[in-house]
Design brief:
Layout lengths: L5 H19 L3 H12 L1 E15 L2 H18 L4 E10 L8 H9 L4 E5 L2 E4 L1 E10 L3 H27 L3 E14 L2 E14 L19 H15 L3 H5 L14 H5 L1 H15 L5 E10 L3 H22 L8 H13 L3 H4 L7 H199 L37 H21 L1
Antiparallel strand pairs: 1-6, 1-8, 2-5, 3-4, 6-7
Helix pairs in contact: 2-10, 3-6, 3-9, 5-6, 5-9
Length: 605
C-alpha cells in the first residue's frame, strides 16, 4: 500500500493551481459561471475540531543541554585494573609476582620439593590483571540512561494515550444561482477525519537543527540519541550490573569533572521533576474561509456543472451564451428606459412608481447581501477575538508557570550552590585529613616493610627446615606404605588359595550328589518296570480263567533288591593356608575352569 506524505499533497495542490485554475482564469465561460455563483445566494462555513498539545520544554532543554556531556563520557569512559586471584597448578602460572611468592611462603603445603636453595612448588597463586569498566561513575551513567529512557517513554505513551482521537475538518457550501436558462442549485458537505499518526518519526535525523523542529520532533531527536547510546561498548559491557540507588555517593570525579557535574544535575532534575510535562486541549472553532479558497471552490463548482451537463447530454439547452452574458451584464449594471416602458402614454407617476419599485428591490437585495456579509464578518471577528483572548490567557498561564519554574529553579540552584560550597569545604577538610593519614600510612608501611623483610628471612629459614623434615617424613611414609603393600599382597594370595580349595571341594560334593540322584532314578525306573510286568501277568491270568482255560504259567521272579547306596565321601579337612607366591597362570586356569563349569550347567539345564 502506497504511503502518501505531506509533500505529495502539496505537489498535487500546486499542480492543480498552476495547470487547471491558471488555465481557466482567462476563460470567458469560467469567469461568467464564477460571477453567476457570486451573484446568487451562497453560504460557506468552515469548522475545525482538533487537538492542541502544549509541551513544557524545560525537561527537553535540560536533556538536550546534557547530551554533549553524556556523549563525551560514553566515548571516554572511566577504567580501572581489576586483579583476579586464583590458585592453579605450577604449569598454568603465567607470571610470578611478589604477591605470589608471599602467598607461597604463607602456605607451605603447596611446596612439592626443596633441594638446597631450590624450591619447587606444586601449586601457586596466579594473579590476572584485566581492564574493567565496572566503576561507580560508569554505573551511575548506565543508571542515568535507564532513568532517562523510562522518563521519555512514560511521557510519550501518555501523549499518545491523550491523543487517541481524530482531527475533524468540515466544509459546508450551499446556494443557488442562474446560469443561462438553468437554475443551478448546489449543496456540498465535506468532512475530513485525520487520525493521529505515531509520535515517533523514524526519518528524524539526530544532527538536525533544533531551531527548525517542533516540540514532538525535538523529543523524538532526544529519544533517538539516548537510544544510540545503548549500542556503545560501555553500556554493553555494563549490562546486568548493579544499578546506582539514590542518594548519590559524590566521588571526586562526580564533583570535579564538568561532564559528570552536568550528568549529576540532570539526575537531580529527573529525580525532582514530578510533573506531566505537557497538556492536551481539544479545540473547536468555526472560521471564515479566505477569498482564495472560495474562488477555488467556485471553480470546482463550475467544473461539476459542466460535467453534469456533459454526462446528461443537455448541452443544447444552454442557449446563446453571448446573449445571456450580455443580458446578465446589462441586468447587473443598469437598464434602458425603452426596456422598461411599453408605451409613451404612461403617466409620470406610473413611470416614477416603476423606477422606485425597481430601486427598492435592488436596495433590498443589496441590504440582504450586506447583512450576510456583515454577519460573516461579525462571526469572524468574534471568533478571532475569542481566539486571541484564549491565546492571551494561555500565554499568561505559560508565563506564570515559567516565572514559578524560574523562581523554583533559582531556589534550587541557590540550594545547590550552598550545598556545593559546604561540600567543597568538607572536601578540603577531608583532603587535609587524608594527606595527614597518607603520611602516617606511608611511615607505617615503611616500618611494616622492614618488619616484613625480617619476618620473611626468618620464615624462609623456617620453611627450609620444615621442607627438610617434610622430605624425611615423606620417605619414611613411602617405606611404611611399601611394607603394608607387601603384606597385603601376601594376604591376598593366601585368600585366593583358600577360595580355590573351597571351590574344588564344592565341585566334588556336587558331582557325588549328581551320582546319587542318577542311581535313585535308575532304581525307581526298574521298580516301575517290574510293577508293569506283574500287572500284565495278572491280566493274562484273568483272561485265561474267563475263557475256561487255565494256563499255569511260571511265576515271574521278583526283581533283585537294589544295591546299597555308596557311603558318603569323607568330609574333607580344610588345608592349612600355605604361603605361596603369586602366579598369574593359576588365575587364568581358575577363570577357565569357572567358565567351563558355567557352560556345563547351562547345557544340563
Amino acid at each position: 500500500m502506497a504511503e502518501f506524505k505531506r509533500s505529495h499533497i502539496e505537489e498535487y495542490y500546486d499542480r492543480f493551481n498552476e495547470s487547471f485554475l491558471a488555465e481557466l482564469s482567462s476563460d470567458e465561460f469560467h469567469q461568467y459561471f464564477v460571477n453567476s455563483i457570486r451573484s446568487g445566494e451562497c453560504n460557506v462555513s468552515l469548522y475545525e475540531k482538533f487537538i492542541e498539545r502544549n509541551i513544557d520544554l524545560s525537561w527537553v532543554e535540560m536533556i538536550e543541554d546534557s547530551i554533549v556531556a553524556l556523549d563525551t563520557i560514553i566515548r571516554t569512559p572511566q577504567r580501572y585494573i581489576k586483579n583476579e586471584e586464583e590458585i592453579v597448578p605450577i604449569e598454568m602460572v603465567r607470571t610470578v609476582s611478589t604477591e605470589s611468592i608471599r602467598h607461597l611462603a604463607q602456605h607451605t603445603n603447596m611446596i612439592a620439593m626443596v633441594k638446597g636453595d631450590e624450591v619447587t612448588p606444586q601449586r601457586m597463586l596466579n594473579i590476572v590483571k584485566e581492564e574493567s569498566f565496572d566503576t561507580y561513575e560508569n554505573r551511575f551513567i548506565f543508571t542515568l540512561l535507564q532513568k532517562l529512557e523510562y522518563f521519555l517513554d512514560k511521557r510519550l505513551q501518555a501523549l499518545a494515550a491523550g491523543s487517541n482521537t481524530q482531527d475533524q475538518f468540515e466544509l459546508k457550501l450551499d446556494g443557488n444561482c442562474e446560469a443561462g436558462h438553468d437554475r443551478f442549485q448546489y449543496d456540498l458537505k465535506i468532512v475530513c477525519l485525520t487520525p493521529h499518526v505515531d509520535l515517533r518519526d523514524e526519518d528524524m535525523r539526530v544532527d538536525a537543527d533544533i531551531t527548525q523542529l517542533n516540540s514532538l520532533q525535538r523529543i523524538e531527536r532526544v529519544r533517538k540519541i539516548l537510544y544510540s547510546f545503548q549500542g556503545s561498548a560501555l553500556i554493553k559491557s555494563l549490562a546486568g550490573c548493579a544499578l546506582v540507588r539514590p542518594p548519590l555517593n559524590m566521588t571526586n570525579v562526580l564533583k570535579k569533572n564538568p561532564n559528570f557535574r552536568k550528568a549529576v544535575d540532570l539526575w537531580m532534575f529527573v529525580e525532582q521533576y514530578d510533573e506531566v510535562g505537557y497538556s492536551v486541549s481539544h479545540v473547536e472553532r468555526q472560521t471564515a474561509p479566505s477569498d482564495e479558497y472560495i474562488n477555488e471552490l467556485f471553480s470546482v463548482l463550475a467544473l461539476q456543472y459542466v460535467m453534469l451537463k456533459k454526462n446528461t447530454g443537455s448541452f443544447d439547452d444552454l442557449g446563446d451564451y453571448s446573449e445571456h452574458k450580455q443580458e446578465s451584464e446589462i441586468n447587473i449594471v443598469k437598464k434602458d428606459i425603452d426596456d422598461i416602458i411599453d408605451s409613451y402614454d404612461m403617466e409620470v407617476d406610473e413611470i416614477r412608481r416603476i423606477f422606485v419599485d425597481r430601486l427598492e428591490r435592488k436596495k433590498q437585495k443589496e441590504r440582504t447581501q450586506f447583512n450576510k456579509i456583515k454577519d460573516v464578518i461579525t462571526r469572524t471577528i468574534n471568533l478571532e477575538t475569542e481566539k486571541i483572548a484564549e491565546e492571551n490567557r494561555q500565554r499568561a498561564i505559560r508565563a506564570k508557570r515559567r516565572e514559578e519554574k524560574r523562581k523554583q529553579e533559582e531556589a534550587r540552584l541557590a540550594a545547590l550552590e550552598a550545598k556545593r560550597l559546604a561540600e567543597e569545604a568538607r572536601l578540603a577538610e577531608e583532603a587535609r585529613l587524608a594527606e595527614e593519614a597518607r603520611l602516617a600510612e606511608e611511615a607505617r608501611l615503611a616500618e611494616e616493610a622492614r618488619l616484613a623483610e625480617e619476618a620473611r628471612l626468618a620464615e624462609e629459614a623456617r620453611l627450609a627446615e620444615e621442607a627438610r623434615l617434610a622430605e624425611e617424613a615423606r620417605l619414611a611414609e613411602e617405606a611404611r606404605l611399601a611394607e603394608e603393600a607387601r603384606l597385603a599382597e601376601e594376604a591376598r594370595l593366601a585368600e585366593e588359595a583358600r577360595l580355590a580349595e573351597e571351590a574344588r571341594l564344592a565341585e566334588e560334593a556336587r558331582l557325588a550328589e549328581e551320582a546319587r540322584l542318577a542311581e535313585e532314578a535308575r532304581l525307581a525306573k526298574e521298580a516301575r518296570l517290574a510293577e508293569i510286568a506283574a500287572k500284565k501277568a495278572k491280566r493274562e491270568m484273568i483272561v485265561g480263567a474267563v475263557k475256561g482255560v487255565f494256563v499255569r504259567k511260571r511265576p515271574t521272579p521278583p526283581p533283585p533288591p537294589p544295591p546299597p547306596p555308596p557311603p558318603p565321601p569323607p568330609k574333607p579337612q580344610p588345608p592349612k593356608p600355605v604361603k605361596k607366591e603369586y602366579d598369574p597362570s593359576r588365575k587364568k586356569q581358575r577363570n577357565k575352569h569357572r567358565l567351563q563349569k558355567r557352560q556345563n550347567d547351562e547345557n544340563r539345564s
